[in-house]
Design goal:
The complex is a heterodimer of chains A (about 600) and B (about 575).
Chain A (H helix, E strand, L loop, with lengths): L1 H4 L11 H12 L4 H40 L7 H50 L4 H4 L2 H43 L1 H48 L1 H6 L3 H53 L5 H43 L20 E11 L2 E11 L4 E5 L6 H8 L7 E6 L2 E2 L5 H6 L1 E4 L8 E2 H6 L7 H10 L3 H6 L7 E2 L8 H15 L3 E5 L7 H15 L3 E5 L11 E6 L2 E6 L1 H7 L2 H8 L10
Parallel strand pairs in A: 3-10, 3-11, 6-9, 9-10
Antiparallel strand pairs in A: 1-2, 1-4, 4-5, 7-8, 11-12
Chain B lengths: L11 H38 L6 H50 L2 H7 L1 H42 L6 H45 L1 H6 L3 H54 L4 H23 L3 H17 L21 E8 L9 E8 L4 E6 L5 H7 L8 E6 L2 E2 L5 H6 L1 E4 L8 E2 H5 L8 H10 L3 H6 L7 E2 L8 H15 L3 E5 L7 H14 L4 E5 L3 H4 L4 E6 L2 E6 L1 H7 L1 H10 L2 H4 L4
Parallel strand pairs in B: 3-10, 3-11, 6-9, 9-10
Antiparallel strand pairs in B: 1-2, 1-4, 4-5, 7-8, 11-12
Helix pairs in contact in B: 1-2, 1-4, 1-8, 2-4, 4-5, 4-8, 4-9, 5-7, 5-8, 7-8, 13-15, 18-19
Classes of the chains: A alpha/beta (about 600), B alpha/beta (about 575).
Chain lengths: ~600, ~575
């Protein structure tokens, strides 16, 4: 019945029900064909047994009744051996039925859990295969919601809906047959309630849907308020805004309350109304049954069976109404999961170069053309030659496309035209993973995972010894800091690590790259979250790191890149100038302007 | 869970009424079988024994009575749902308000301890869970035992109570099964929650680390990490669902076996003449009704453990006392010392940290002067800023404002005289006006416009279609970082406080705006105490005193020229930023 669970929510319908259903069954559930067959057979079997039960039980009652009547009329009385036999058959029947439904439940659980396990893994693997530009369009929150919420909805609803649909259908059909075999007149009486309750379910579901939607909206407002105030609690407190925040919250909370109880009430109405209709049927059966029994057309036991059937009959009808909305939201969830899984992947390089141990680190850009979309070209015709061990700086104002170069090098994106060569070979010939391994990257946003400090540094090279890890940490000037942590290298870092500052996190990622010992280095605004003094301290370590490696440095602090072998000056997505520091200054062009501007007003940063 | 029920106190009358109605409904539902029994005993049986007697009228009459009783039952049920929806929604509303108020009273320590994200889920999802359960509670969880007890009383008080024990046995067996299954599954249920958290954590980490994972070619390692978490979740899930999937078949089995027992016993009763056939049939129906109401409880079995966890999480908030509270007797500020801030031997350590982040800090920030604080990342600059409005309490030493220890005054009074501009501009949904006027809604438009002017925000505000009435989305997500920052500065200026505190507030501005803003600000802050935390040396060159922090200690106080001469730390910071031009030589 829709009432008792009260978990009715706004039902989101899938865009293409048929396609999704087909895929779900053909590609996923078909792997569990055997087990699903077991579920099907055992559901039918256990339902059949449950349905036959009341009729046999009714026979026992009739036997007693007839025995009683015969006793009064001078007959033999109640024959307990017959009754005993009937009851024993019943007991066996019920034991088998219970066993069957337990087996069915266990099998279904294993199907559903294996399926969700598999889907979750597929999703996680898919993340790693998607091209980078996918994540420009979708937020992490959206993807996360697929892995958690949608998978949850799918597994919960699949488990319940499949079994319920099967057993409800079997029950309805089975009970109809049983009722007809007892008395068609009485069956008709029971059936009258069908359309009535169907219409009722429809009306109430529609009405309450409206209020549920309203409730959902207000809930969104309240949650939004909570998020905003908790997030800015410092400011609320600093400006003594607590009272004001509470007043506003109260108002929204009150609206939520009003919509909330109405939604609950309306959807809850379903239960007593259906119950009443069922009771009308019950009265009808009792009265008509009594009448027919007197006429001798049915037995007393038949009335009892009929009453039992009647009670069981209304239940599956309500269930099917509920299951249909469950299936809708399940399919909508499945659709989002499949859509994600069907997204185009990064093209795999077949037979790519997998041995990169001898890469020297020379890089050549030949007529490179690139744009995030074909209408908006970011890099027009870029040419440059980089010898192994050289230091290349990319400078320019924010939004000039500095990081684009790096993304192309690492094949996070592919060039539209032209080619990029590493050691004379087109990077498209390399196995993507191997190519990336030759690069060491330190980005502006640090990324550490929950685990120990040691594990995080080791991420660069899994087989590193403790000694090597400490050396890398020392080179990154983070060893001392690690030592001050409660558990040293074994300290756990987690999402809410509040005693590790942004700068220290960056130093840890630098240690990680130092340990990885890559051929080519990419430093993308790596020091912008570190204050200038700390930066100075680690500059020597960075210099050591860059020695003998081809390095790309993206920076907006120009002082750090003066000694680069090649400076690429970018503006509006184009390389406007290239050369080394003195050359560029002598040109008195964009670079010179950029360089001098940072000393006006003694300012070191260009926004 | 039980602790939260005290929030039902306000609705005591409604709850009592619900319970009364539940009894009434149980009575109605239980008396329906009596009528069937009447039809069989007095209608059919009589007709079978005395074929000449006319009993059709009696049967019809009984039918109408049954309809009446069914109507009563429905009316009760509707009233119960009406009341329980209201009670549950009210409970949710009250809880939400209580939790919200409580969180607003928390200091930064509690906030970091719980983490903002967790506080948000606790205030929203967890309360929603409880509200849903409470609605169900009255209709289903309360009803089943009432039905059980009612049926038991009814049967035992009847003239013939030889079979009452069967109902007793049925109820005990049901309780035993539900109880056992819960005892088995409950610990795993708790584990389930942490495993789900783990999966979420790993997924989030993978999503946030995509570039790094790809750069290190660690996709396989991450997939393995995910798989581990996934496998653990699957195993626990299988166990829990299987345990719970036992409930329904087992309860059905009990129901059916009890019926067999009733027929067997009843048959003998009928044979001995102490029981009528109709009574026996009524008996079967009582049992069915009781069992069906218990079956509904089993349907709630998924909700119960979840709600219990939610209840615990909500309680944790409600039971946490904010670590910073106003004293019972508070002092007033000395009004002659307009904005004097003194740090006396202040040390501070974060709640769970081993070492002090600030050690023995001494300085005085005077009205009419600008005090700048500079130092490396992690040197404790921002911590000082958090101590002044008392977001944290000092571990040792004292902070005096206008000559009074800030622990002695009301938090509200203290914060009234401070204008804080945080590192990241935080805005609230509303309009530009409501954000600038945040400190006082009744502020005049002139003050608001002047503040915007000083904060260099006029230009972009005027360019908006609705000017000051332009909408600001939740957390200010529809304006840029620089604009947010300027509005946050305008908000603090409009407050006209005695003490300005800028926590690295100019970093999101380009240097031209920065210098213009500081120039405009200097006239406004002429008689005020200004405390600036900065990264850029250029921002603080002209400060009246510069405090140099290193690893939580003050290593120098003075003006720029003095510090350049005699402070090594300061010189290093300056050298890393200032031009050769400024310093007259190569670096």
């Amino acid at each position: 019945m829709p009432g008792p669970m009260g978990k009715q929510k706004v039902v989101v319908k899938p865009k293409n029900f048929k396609k999704t259903a087909k895929k779900l069954f053909k590609e996923y559930l078909s792997q569990y064909k055997g087990r699903l067959l077991i579920v099907l057979l055992f559901t039918i079997a256990s339902t059949v047994f449950t349905i036959v039960g009341p009729k046999i039980l009714g026979n026992a009652t009739t036997e007693i009744f007839n025995g009683l009547v015969s006793k009064f009329t001078g007959g033999a009385g109640i024959d307990f051996s017959v009754i005993g036999q009937i009851l024993l058959t019943l007991l066996v029947l019920y034991i088998i039925s219970t066993l069957f439904s337990v087996i069915q439940g266990f099998t279904m659980t294993s199907v559903v859990q294996n399926l969700t396990y598999k889907l979750r893994n597929e999703l996680a693997q898919k993340i790693n295969k998607l091209p980078m530009n996918y994540f420009d369009k979708k937020t992490n929150g959206e993807v996360l919601s697929i892995i958690t919420n949608d998978i949850d909805t799918l597994s919960m609803n699949l488990d319940q809906s499949v079994t319920q649909v099967l057993s409800s259908l079997c029950t309805i059909i089975g009970i109809l047959i049983m009722m007809f075999t007892i008395s068609w007149e009485m069956t008709l009486i029971s059936l009258i309630i069908l359309p009535v309750s169907g219409i009722l379910v429809g009306i109430i579901a529609k009405k309450s849907q409206k209020f549920f939607k309203k409730q959902q909206d207000y809930l969104g407002h309240v949650n939004g308020k909570v998020e905003e105030i908790y997030g800015g609690l410092n400011i609320v407190k600093a400006f003594n805004g607590e009272e004001k925040a509470i007043q506003k919250f109260k108002k929204q909370n009150d609206e939520l309350y009003k919509a909330g109880w109405k939604a609950q009430f309306l959807s809850g109405l379903m239960h007593p109304l259906m119950n009443f209709i069922a009771n009308i049927g019950y009265v009808g059966v009792a009265v008509a049954g009594g009448y027919f029994a007197i006429n001798g057309r049915i037995t007393v036991g038949n009335i009892q069976s009929f009453i039992q059937y009647n009670r069981q009959f209304t239940q599956p009808i309500g269930q099917i109404a509920q299951v249909s909305s469950m299936i809708q939201s399940m399919m909508a969830a499945a659709e989002r999961i499949f859509e994600f899984l069907e997204e185009a992947e990064e093209v795999k390089t077949l037979n790519g170069i997998t041995d990169t141990s001898n890469v020297k680190g020379s890089i050549e850009f030949k007529h490179v053309k690139f744009g995030y979309s074909s209408e908006k070209i970011v890099i027009n015709d870029f040419n440059a030659k980089v010898k192994p061990g050289q230091k290349i700086a990319i400078v320019g104002p924010t939004g000039a496309g500095k990081t684009t170069m790096v993304k192309l090098l690492m094949r996070f994106y592919d060039v539209l035209d032209g080619e990029i060569l590493v050691d004379g070979k087109n990077i498209k010939e390399f196995d993507r993973g191997e190519l990336r391994k030759t690069f060491g990257m330190v980005l502006q946003d640090t990324w550490l995972f929950s685990g120990t400090v040691q594990e995080n540094i080791k991420y660069g090279r899994e087989d590193a010894t403790d000694d090597e890890i400490i050396k890398a940490a020392q080179a990154a000037h983070v060893h001392h800091f690690i030592k001050t942590l409660p558990n040293g290298y074994k300290s756990i870092l987690n999402e809410e690590t509040s005693n590790v500052s942004a700068g220290q996190k960056q130093l840890l990622t630098i240690a990680r790259v130092i340990l990885a010992d890559p051929k080519i280095l990419i430093l993308d605004e790596a020091t912008s979250s570190i204050d200038t003094r700390t930066e100075l301290q680690i500059q020597s370590a960075m210099d050591n790191l860059m020695k003998g490696r081809t390095s790309f440095i993206i920076a907006h602090r120009l002082s750090t890149i003066k000694n680069a072998d090649l400076i690429l000056v970018m503006n509006h997505g184009d390389i406007v100038e290239q050369g080394h520091h003195e050359e560029l200054l002598a040109k008195n062009g964009f670079y010179a302007e950029l360089y001098n501007s940072q000393f006006e007003d003694c300012n070191d940063e260009i926004e | 869970m039980l602790k939260l029920l005290k929030f039902l106190k306000k609705s005591v009358i409604a709850v009592l009424l619900i319970i009364l109605l539940l009894w009434l409904q149980a009575w109605a539902d239980l008396s329906l079988p009596d009528f069937t029994s009447k039809i069989v005993n007095e209608g059919i049986q009589q007709a079978a024994l005395n074929p000449n007697e006319e009993t059709t009228g009696f049967i019809l009459n009984t039918g109408f009575q049954m309809l009446g009783v069914a109507l009563v039952s429905m009316a009760c049920a509707i009233l119960i749902i009406f009341l329980s929806s209201k009670v549950a929604a009210k409970l949710g509303k009250n809880l939400r308000e209580k939790v919200f108020k409580k969180v607003l009273s928390f200091s930064r320590s509690e906030l970091t301890e719980f983490s903002t994200a967790s506080l948000i889920t606790r205030s929203t999802n967890d309360i929603q869970q409880i509200q849903q359960l409470i609605t169900m509670m009255f209709r289903v969880i309360f009803y089943a035992p009432i039905m059980g007890i009612g049926a038991f009383i009814k049967v035992s008080t009847q003239s013939d109570n030889s079979m009452a024990w069967i109902i007793g046995v049925a109820i005990l067996a049901i309780l035993f099964i539900i109880g056992t299954l819960f005892i088995i599954a409950m610990p795993k249920f708790k584990k389930l929650q942490s495993l789900i958290d783990k999966i979420n954590l790993v997924s989030r980490e993978i999503l946030n680390g995509i570039p790094v994972i790809r750069a290190f070619n660690k996709e396989k390692r991450e997939e393995k990490r995910f798989d581990e978490a996934n496998l653990n979740l699957k195993k626990t899930n299988v166990f829990v669902s299987r345990t719970m999937s036992l409930m329904f078949p087992l309860l059905m089995f009990i129901m059916n076996s009890i019926m067999i027992l009733i027929i067997w016993n009843g048959g003998h009763g009928v044979d001995e003449g102490i029981l009528q056939v109709g009574d026996m049939m009524a008996f079967i129906q009582y049992t069915m009704q009781i069992l069906i109401s218990f079956l509904f409880i089993s349907m709630l079995s998924i909700m119960l453990p979840r709600a219990a966890v939610s209840a615990k999480r909500i309680n944790e908030i409600l039971e946490t006392e904010p670590s910073i509270k106003d004293k019972e007797i508070t002092k007033e500020f000395d009004s002659t010392k307009k904005g004097l801030v003194e740090f006396k031997n202040v040390s501070f350590r974060y709640p769970d940290a081993d070492t002090e982040i600030l050690e023995d800090i001494n300085f005085t920030a005077r009205p009419g002067e600008t005090t700048a604080i500079i130092g490396s990342t992690g040197s404790g600059k921002s911590t000082i800023v958090n101590l002044i409005p008392r977001f944290y309490d000092v571990t040792e030493g004292e902070i005096l404002v206008d000559g009074v220890n800030i622990k002695e005054v009301k938090q509200k009074d203290l914060r009234d005289i401070i204008g804080l501009v945080p590192q990241k501009g935080v805005l609230f949904s509303g309009t530009i006006e409501s954000n600038i006027k945040y400190s006082d809604e009744n502020m005049s438009d002139d003050i608001m416009k002047e503040a915007a002017q000083i904060a260099q925000a006029t230009e972009f505000i005027e360019s908006k279609s609705n000017k000051y009435q332009d909408k600001i989305a939740q957390s200010g997500n529809n304006v840029s970082g620089g604009q947010k920052q300027r509005l946050a500065i305008a908000r603090a200026i409009a407050k006209n406080p005695e003490i300005f505190v800028f926590d690295d507030s100019f970093s999101a501005l380009d240097f031209k705006t920065d210098s213009k803003l500081r120039e405009a600000l200097s006239t406004k802050t002429k008689n005020k105490t200004v405390i600036i935390v900065a990264q850029r040396i250029s921002t603080i060159l002209n400060a009246d005193q510069i405090i140099v922090l290193e690893e939580g200690k003050v290593v120098g106080i003075g003006k720029h020229e003095e510090l350049m001469k005699n402070n090594e730390t300061y010189r290093q910071i300056a050298l890393s930023q200032l031009s050769e031009k400024e310093l007259g030589g190569d670096v």
